[in-house]
Amino acid sequence: MRSFSRAFLIVWMSIAVSLLCFGAALAQEGAVIKGVVTDDAGNPLPGANIYIEELQLGASADVDGYYMFEIPAELVNGQEVTLVANFLGYKISKQKITLTAGEFTYNFELVPDVLELQEIVVTGMGVGIPKEKLGVVIPKVQPREVVESGEQNIVAALHGKVANVEIIAASGEPGAEAYIRIRGANTIQGNNQPLIVVDGTPINNQSIAGAVGRHGGVTQTNRASDIDPDDIESIEILKGAAASAIYGTRAASGVILITTKSGKPGKPKFTYKVSYSWDEVYNTVPLQKKYGQGVFGRPSTRSPLSWGPRLDTLTTDYLRNAGFVDEKGNLTYGTKVYDHEWEMFEVGHNFDNQFIVSGGNAWTTYYLSIGRTSIDGAIKGNSDYLRNSVHLKATQRLSEKLSVTGNFNYSDVTVNRIQKGSNVSGLLLGTFRTPPNFNNLPYIDPETGLHRSYRYQRPTKLYRSRGYDNPFFIVYENVNVSDVGRAFGNIKLEYDPLDWLNISYTLGTDYSTDDRRTVYPPSSSSYPEGRVIREKFTYKETDGYLAITATRRFEPASANVNVLLGHQINQREFNTFQTIGDKMFVYGFNQLDNTASYDPNEYEYKIRQESFFGQVMLDLWEQLYLSASLRNDGSSTFGRAKKRHWFPKFSGAWEFSSFEMLKPVKKVLSYGKVRVAYGETGREPGAYQTITLYSTGSFGQGWGVSHSTTAFGFGGFFLSATKGNDAIRPERNKEWEYGLDLGFLNNRIGLEITRYESRTEDVILALPVPPSTGFMSRLENAAVIENKGWEIALDAQPIKLKNFKWDVRLLYGENNSLVTDLAGAEYVLLGGFTSAAAYAVVGQPYGVIQGRDFVRFGRGEVVNGVNIDKEYTGWKPGDLYIAEDGYPVRSSKLWVIGDPNPDWTGSIRNTFTLFNNLRISVLFDIKQGGDMWNGTRGALYFFGAHKDTEKPFPEDLVVKMDDSKREGTGVFKGVGPGAGKEVPGGIWWYLLNEGSGFTGPASQFVEDASYMKLREISISYKFRHELISKWIGIKDINIRFTGRNLYTWTNYRGIDPETNLAGNTNWQGLDYFNMPQTRSFILSLQFNY
Question: Domain 30-111, what fold?
Answer without folding.
Answer: Immunoglobulin-like (2.60.40)
